[in-house]
Amino acid sequence: MAKKVKYVYFFGGKKADGKAEMKSLLGGKGANLAEMVNIGLPVPAGYTITTEVCTYYYANKRSYPKELKAQVLDALKKVENAMGAKFGDPKNPLLVSIRSGARASMPGMMDTILNLGLNDTTVKGVIEKTNGNTRFAYDSYRRFVQMYGDVVLGLKPVDKHEIDPFEAIIEAKKEARGIHFDTELTAEDLMELVAEFKAAIKEKTGHDFPEDPHTQLWGAIGAVFGSWMNDRAKVYRKLNGIPESWGTAVNVQSMVFGNMGEDSGTGVAFTRDPATGENIFYGEYLFNAQGEDVVAGTRTPHPIAALKDDNPVIYKQLDNIRKILEKHYKDMMDIEFTIQQGKLWMLQCRVGKRTGFAAVKMAVDMVKEKLIGKEEAIMRIEPNQLNQLLRPVFDANEKKKAIEEGKLLAKGLNAGPGAASGRVALSAQDAEEMAAKGEKVILVRIETSPEDIKGMNASEGILTAKGGMTSHAALVARQMGKVCVAGCGALKINYAERSIRVDKLPDVVVKEGDFISIDGSTGEVIVGAINTKPSEVIQVLINKTLDPKDSPVFQTYDSLMKWADSYRKLGIRTNADQPDQASNAIAFGAQGIGLCRTEHMFFEGDRILHVRKMILSDSVEGRKEALAELLPFQREDFRGIFKAMKGYPVTVRTLDPPLHEFLPQKESDIEVLAQELNIPVAKVHERIHSLHEFNPMLGFRGCRLGVVYPEITEMQARAIFEAAAEVMAEGYKVKPEIMIPLVGDVSELKLQEDIVRRVAAEVMAEKKVKIQYLVGTMIELPRAALVADQIATRAEFFSFGTNDLTQTTFGLSRDDSGKFLPLYVEQELLPNDPFEALDQNGVGQLLEMGTQRGRKTRPDLKVGICGEHGGEPSSVEFCHRTGLNYVSCSPFRVPIARLAAARAVVRELKPGAKKTKPVKKAVKTTKKKK
Amino acid sequence: MAKKVKYVYFFGGKKADGKAEMKSLLGGKGANLAEMVNIGLPVPAGYTITTEVCTYYYANKRSYPKELKAQVLDALKKVENAMGAKFGDPKNPLLVSIRSGARASMPGMMDTILNLGLNDTTVKGVIEKTNGNTRFAYDSYRRFVQMYGDVVLGLKPVDKHEIDPFEAIIEAKKEARGIHFDTELTAEDLMELVAEFKAAIKEKTGHDFPEDPHTQLWGAIGAVFGSWMNDRAKVYRKLNGIPESWGTAVNVQSMVFGNMGEDSGTGVAFTRDPATGENIFYGEYLFNAQGEDVVAGTRTPHPIAALKDDNPVIYKQLDNIRKILEKHYKDMMDIEFTIQQGKLWMLQCRVGKRTGFAAVKMAVDMVKEKLIGKEEAIMRIEPNQLNQLLRPVFDANEKKKAIEEGKLLAKGLNAGPGAASGRVALSAQDAEEMAAKGEKVILVRIETSPEDIKGMNASEGILTAKGGMTSHAALVARQMGKVCVAGCGALKINYAERSIRVDKLPDVVVKEGDFISIDGSTGEVIVGAINTKPSEVIQVLINKTLDPKDSPVFQTYDSLMKWADSYRKLGIRTNADQPDQASNAIAFGAQGIGLCRTEHMFFEGDRILHVRKMILSDSVEGRKEALAELLPFQREDFRGIFKAMKGYPVTVRTLDPPLHEFLPQKESDIEVLAQELNIPVAKVHERIHSLHEFNPMLGFRGCRLGVVYPEITEMQARAIFEAAAEVMAEGYKVKPEIMIPLVGDVSELKLQEDIVRRVAAEVMAEKKVKIQYLVGTMIELPRAALVADQIATRAEFFSFGTNDLTQTTFGLSRDDSGKFLPLYVEQELLPNDPFEALDQNGVGQLLEMGTQRGRKTRPDLKVGICGEHGGEPSSVEFCHRTGLNYVSCSPFRVPIARLAAARAVVRELKPGAKKTKPVKKAVKTTKKKK
Fold this sequence. Notes:
The structure is a homodimer. The first copy, chain A, is of the alpha/beta class. In chain A, 44% of the residues lie in helices and 16% in strands. Chain A has an eight-stranded mixed β-sheet. An eight-stranded parallel beta barrel of chain A has the order 24-25-26-27-28-29-30-31, surrounded by six helices. At the A-B interface, α27, α29, α30, α32 and α34 of A face α27, α29, α30, α32 and α34 of B.
């Protein structure tokens, strides 16, 4: 016969079958209950039915393995022994709770049944054991029957607006008694309620309430396993990336009661402050209460510090347990405890959830306390948690109040974290004008386009009705460090009426100029103003309004970042188009610019007119003339960036977007343009028409522009090298890296490279200076990755443009994917939105292939990534494993990338971890190839 | 010292240094001159300067290897010996011609100099040698000076409209003499002309005409090498895919003269009829003439047969040479000969160009004559030449006349070969209505869309102003076997005025209803009607109006196809959506349908209304209701196709295009639709707006539709299986293969496959029948190829959709690429338009990867291709080498694919050829997987 499978793990007394490491099998709760027993803490005895039973249950039409029943009975016997009571015993009954317990915490998502084992017989035993506390016994009994009816027998209404049948009975009873609170119900009332509850169950289900405790037990176990698949749990799993396959364990545990009188009580606590990270005992408790009373908010609990006076013995025990737990788990723990008639019982312990602030502080503190090492500290902080240290925040109370007052207008995508409040501007121009008058502005658009850049820059935050996490608005906002809520589909933006409405709140009309507040960390859009403040880290690093010595928050941030830098191997660069962005990025620790988009500069001031003139020219000469007018502006832009970057390398991408993006769309703008350029309106129309594209993403853009109009590349190269020469003459170091976009074949790169190198040689001869520069390409088309070996014969560096590479590899337009991609993620067809986290399974293969093939041709090929993924932690780790030299991300994500890069290294230090591919040292300078 | 390189190859007398196999080094002409010498034919002696010298010349600033001079002098000596004359000798001068000779024929593209060696001294020797023929001598002399001045000294005007300075002098002379023809010029006139020519040279260049024959010689050699890079030659090379790196050889050959009197003459001939392929001696000749007189058309040459009477001795010699050549070369040869004073000289021989008709007939005949084997016959015919045997053709004389009369309106892309003539219809509806009245119609549109399908089907041909070789119009036209000229940008189509104009012919207005003729093999668009007729092969196979016994053309076609089938290993399927297309494809030899696009059926009759109703539904129920109305139509469609395919497998693709393609665009149509469906107009607008996409190619289409609206897949599956069951009940065999489009991840396929298999099981249970079917997917996204191993866990077959795969791999929209792709091909950035010939370097890697990875998971995976490339010969050969099971192409390309597939096999039979990857036998039936 096959080896007997152990499905049930006992815990209690001094020894448990399980331990903390067995979370996959026992769930988090079960494993920690076992662990607490093993480290000598007082835990009510019980047993855990493993997650394997859950898997079996769903694979076998909701049935159990045949061995289960015997193992449950066996464990129950041990529990009875440990607690000195007997399940179903009329004199000394053992009561149990049945709770779910998955590998990852899913608070409140699944079902729980308390006080199980009570029936008309055992309730008498409880009265006896509690020295005649009839009210307690029947209160426990009626709670059990109600819970069992709701959860196991399915009487809880699905619709939240319907009233629970048992609550209805209680309300009727209170009315009959002329009382207002449950606590005013007498023992007799409660006894009657039990009978009435049972009658209701009989009426609604056609069956009697089960009196047999074993029947009760199996019913409850089935209900808890069944709740793994309820809608709430499914949604929660999807939101939190918990696989359905994990299943839940079921914990059956002896009941202890905090409501047995004033020598009883219950509480929840954290071993440190989960909001600030401070090393204080943090929590609350209530005497003569059950756990739900603490959480429900019907009574106001006391802070845990008060226990020191109220019950110094218990407090000392608890504080001792706190120390044991931190020493044992080396982390901040979240605990639940109950005091039953003066005896302390531990009901739960798990690693405590914490804010980003707290995560950083605890990790840094624990290193100082020698509880953990730096590597562990690095692994303790999810990189995205750093956002909290960087972003402006709303005053928490003000926001809560506003939401309670019904001012939550809608919820969109949390596309650019932070909080912003300001007056609504419905056009970029309005935003600029309002900002010029000193107003704080929120730019609200159906969607944004490159023409809106200046208005976006002038705004505190950007709110759009359309577009996803990587829409234009989201991308630019993150790069600018602006708060952004994108794709808020509920908003009905009426440009003509200058107003915003939502269906949900028919009476609310937000007019242009009204105040609105957006939370880019949650996606909330709130009517009215809410106060915000910049984070301390920003005050120190960017605003320079705070001395680092005066900011403990900054100091912990800074310690963590220094540790991260001591581990990480990946370089971190930034995507920045303007000197101020570049300076911010350096303050955040960037070591270069990985993507400087030259076209953003085209919209500044009068430049757009020259750009349009160039586009509307029929001849090379006309284009060259317009480009010559643009040259000084571009040169000035590059001067600013080169100076700001202080000798760090600057990767400049030549013109990329389709030309139609630069032409006006509104008829009035078209007429103005025709007048300004002194050409017929029809000609502007004709050009707009001829530049129209069915699929602009796959159209006339990237290096295709430079191939057809080499004079554009030539002008841009000249601007770069002239700026470099001038800035070098002023004593700055400059390392330009010219990047040719959208290359699909080495022949395109060759053509563009030849222009760049020729212009470089010309400028160097003219200015009598030697400029160290590189010429490379973006790898953003699948074909480029496939023929990377050929492309590397010409490219001195690769930079993966994973935004476009994701679009082309998936055949997926990020602007159009809103119709189905959310459903894909929801239905788990894809593990993530591939525009947020790099698709390692597919697109990742092209990164690996491109890197390997490129380095095969040119072993010292410098390889980076400059898509949005460069600031996404899982993608950064992938880039490290793939052997990239650097990642480049928006300035405000630089700290996140630094931490993620360090975590990738630390992860590999673990025994048995997959090692990264060796990274060759990248070329430092360039020499003209033959 | 290094081994001496041989740069100069002598030929003449009985022995030549070179031979026919040395074409790369000696060029075609030089190699064949050497070969003719070697097989004993009379060839004027000469020598060939190799192509290596050309390469050296361009790599070294137009200079020669230092060894060249001595080798040339040495070869010249041998020529003098062979011909018994001496270069520059005043008494017995040797005159030579200097001609280019590249590896591939480039007729007329490079320069030639004749009669070189003449000067004021040697001309006397010529007079002496010709017994005082002063006129001949000076005529030769003036021709040489003129040619030398034009070509070597660069006096020929670049602008065709300018007059040649030498021609101007001749005209003046004739005017002065009062004569009309050159032949009327006397010896004295010619002598004066020589002097006047030289004076003009002195005046225009500042230098004297070189009298020294060696100076003349090196000047001419340099001019011929230089002409390799003239604009004409560059364009020709690009058009014909001849690499620049090949270079040209230069042939210096003793002059022989056909204009030395009535015992002299010259001619050109083919060893068989190059137009029909008939085995007759075909050519023409003139007595007392130079080669150029035959070609120039100033005198009417005699057919070669006339020589039999005019000069039986020479005829017999020539006919004998014809036989020797065919026996030696085993091919039809194109020859040039000259008779000098009764002696026959061979000046040139090369494999003759021929029509498709002739190619097939000659190849088949030569097999029968045992000149060549079947394999050689298969390799002799470029698959695309078969088009000539399939397509309707214009009456050649009528077309020529029309063009001469200035009726050529414009030229577009030859997108759908064949000839069509009919009345202009400017909308699909007009086309249908006119066709219903029995008119032949040419549908002329700016571009076509799926809504135009019925109108296209009703038309003889389709002409569009926009779109490339793989635009909608081109794709559908080829599939339908319609003539198509696409992307004819010169056309100004005015829908409002119902007219077509071109700038070039301002007086011409083609109105709707006027006759127009389009040649889809050349791209010509001609005003007025030209008679056409279907090809004999079509008359036999499709129209069944001709008995095969009465068509020798058909018989040769049929022989060739049978031989091809005996070699090829690739299966050939067709892309067909309608029973008539399917039947045609079978007649052409298709062995199944590789792509049946279900959406084309959606536009038939009233169906579009149901489709629109479905799209406009807000609820699953509404959609299901509309789909239920569509079901009977789809089922009927599939019944027709299954019956037509007679048991061959039919691959049905589920709905693919974005839904907005099914909605009307015109306001009036929108209003009609709203009325028909009894919904507000605004709702239709709203839906159209919500379905709008920035990049529809990358949008909500393919299996994404079926994922979001599973009810569509369900309906289509039901229609397929119900049709199969019904048709099986009527005694037909059916093999449906359901193909899920645009899969990027196995999860999508799984979802769709589950629906298909469930519906299949339901229908089989309902109808009590067992249907053999497969479920597979298109691989048309790079990601699908990358994760093919995962996808193959579910897919029973792959079909590469190389149209979309090319678009996504290159990031290139075929609808938008017109702005730059032609330039890319012209500038040789890409060797071909990747939408015409599969990009083997890039996209091809994904085919290999997808096939290998798929077969790793499922060794018997059936793999095909259903993109347009499936009918393009080089792509078909690639598919063979990659180990695909089949290619699928439009019905009219099936014969081409059959031949190409055979050629791929034959090519591998050659010693040292790369062998194909082994093809596993594909699965025949399917079993439900666990």
